[in-house]
Amino acid sequence: MLRNSRTERLVALVLVAPFLAIYLLAFVYPTVQMFRISFTDAPLIGAGRWVGLDNYLRLDNDPMFRRAVWNTAYFVLMTVVPGTLIALLIALGVSRLKGRFQAIVLALFFLPYILPVSVVYLIWDWTLNFQFGIAMHVLDWLGISRVPVFKSRVWFLPAVAGVTIWWTAGFSILLFLAGLRSISAEIYEAAALDNSTRWTTFRRITWPLLWPITSLVLTIQLILQLKIFDQVYLFSIGGRPNDNMVLVYYVFQKAFQQNQGGRAAAVAVTLFVLVVVVSVLQFQLLRFAERRRR
Amino acid sequence: MNAMAAQRWNFWGGIITALTLVWAILWAFPLYWGVISSLKPDDEVVRPYIELWPETPTLENYIAALTTTQIGTWYINSVAVAVGVTVITIFISMLCGYAISQLRFPGRIALWWLILASFMVPISALIINHFVLVANLGLLNSWAGIMLPQLIHPVIIIVYKQFFDQVPKDFREAAVMDNASEFGILFKVYMPMNWGVTTALSIVCFIWTWNAFLWPFLSVTRTEMMTITVGITQVNDAFGVYYARQLSAAVLAGLPVALAYLFFQRRVTEAITLSAGIKG
């Protein structure tokens, strides 16, 4: 096949130009700048002096940074594995249903995922409202004393984790359903002929065949939850943001509330590196899963 | 023996189906509760017992939300930003995905790595420098400023590239034989084949942008420039303890995306699984 390579190059340039312009401006440039100002004492807007690794060394004995790391880890612990397991259970239940009925039940589980975080916040803030929330009526009825969930140091992160699982499970459920659909019915029929119990079928067939999807869901969840900010910020309104400090919140506080761009950038770089490491891992997993399918 | 096993199987199957159904109803209950509460008059909302249906359903909370806040303006901002981001993102991603998949040119591999790199990077770590950039461009408190950092959706390019990769080379070669121009090939041969994917990706891109919180929250300080997702959380004080009004504002903010999902359920789920790197 003859190709006119000069025209081809020219066309390629024209096609790629808009993408390149936007990515250089809104992705490459800010990334380079983030690394650069993390070595300076710059305020949010404006130039700063070069301070070398000072911003990073300070993080080592910064109690608020430690709390942010610890809370983020705690939050990840409460959301990633539990959320994935809950989504798997739901997907297993939904995958048994057929046709319209399945579509409706799936929609009930999936709807929260499609909503903006601020709507999720307002709904749960209301549901768990200390004075009038329906959840508190349920607690009264069970004879348990009421808890001011989002004002409590102990309950804040677990509650936000619960809301987050509720909010994001829909996405994982979809991936699990796609995975379950790709397991052929013949394998299950063979298992049924062998009088295999439900549990054995799950343990010997479904779980191993689903593992590539499970690991994908786990890493996507991990990346997502490391970046937690919106829910923590919103539920902290009128509460105690410093107790609930997480990494992105700390970047926000340092940069936008304390006007310390350089020190905030050092925190941002830390998060950046953390997520990139996990993402590279995820990318390898995807390639691995892809190769296995062929 | 076999028949008994089959019967036991069905019995437990029925139990699991019933449990799934109950769970689904409980799962969606907070949504129902939010909507129902928004339809109750003020005195009913705060009654100390559970009422699953409003005694006197009313729209007064919606009227109050619409007249005492700038919710109409926020709606316009949200629509403008979401449509703008969707159109630009789909356009640049399709062109770029096509070039990388079908054309040979120097720098192609480097470009692909740039896309994969941006896929692995947490955009929320860039907030400081996005803010500096947008401030320096004089775009804070503007639609363009809210849009700019949200145009980075590498996953859409990746999906397009994978899609163009699957088109048999014969299509292109036949078109080249016919002396069709490169742009002709893209728009007349490849585009029509990708209509389904383009619709699906557009819908989810719209939903993602509509739902975005962090960046619109940072880049806008003037109430009249807020998107609706930010607006409804920043005016709590205006409502005081009018829970029902807050909830009616929430319902209004969630309605467009919920409807988009319910209308295009199959497309939305397709695009979301595609964007996770799974081919359905």
Please tell me about this protein's structure.
The complex is a heterodimer of chains A (294) and B (280). Chain A has 294 residues and is mainly alpha-helical. In chain A, 76% of the residues lie in helices and 0% in strands. Chain A has helices at residues 5-37, 54-60, 63-95, 99-114, 117-127, 134-142, 156-181, 185-193, 198-226, 230-236, 247-257, 261-293. In chain A, helix 3 packs antiparallel against helix 9, helix 4 runs antiparallel to helix 7 and helix 9 packs antiparallel against helix 12 (261-293). Chain A is globular, with a radius of gyration of 24 Å. Chain B has 2 domains: 2-62; 69-275, MetI-like fold (Orthogonal Bundle), CATH 1.10.3720. Chain B starts with a helix and ends in a 5-residue tail after the last helix. Chain B is built from 16 helices and no strands. The mean pLDDT of chain B is 88. In chain B, helix 5 packs across helix 8 and helix 11 crosses helix 16 (265-275). Chain B is mainly alpha-helical. Chains A and B meet through helix 1, helix 3, helix 4, helix 5 and helix 7 of A and helix 1, helix 4, helix 5, helix 6 and helix 10 of B.
User: SSE order of chain B, as H and E?
Assistant: HHHHHHHHHHHHHHHH
The low-confidence runs of chain B, each spanning 5 or more residues with pLDDT under 50, are none
CATH hierarchy class name of chain A: Mainly Alpha
The CATH architecture of chain A can be given as Orthogonal Bundle
Query: For the record, what is the CATH homologous superfamily label of the largest domain in chain B?
Result: MetI-like
State the order of secondary-structure elements of chain A, H for helix, E for strand.
HHHHHHHHHHHH
Number of helices of chain A: 12
Percent of residues in beta strands of chain B: under 5%
CATH superfamily (homologous) name of chain A: MetI-like
Count of discrete structural domains of chain B: 2
Content-based structural category of chain A: mainly alpha
Q: Strand tally of chain B, please? A: 0
Helix content percent band of chain A: over 70%
Q: Report the oligomer.
A: heterodimer
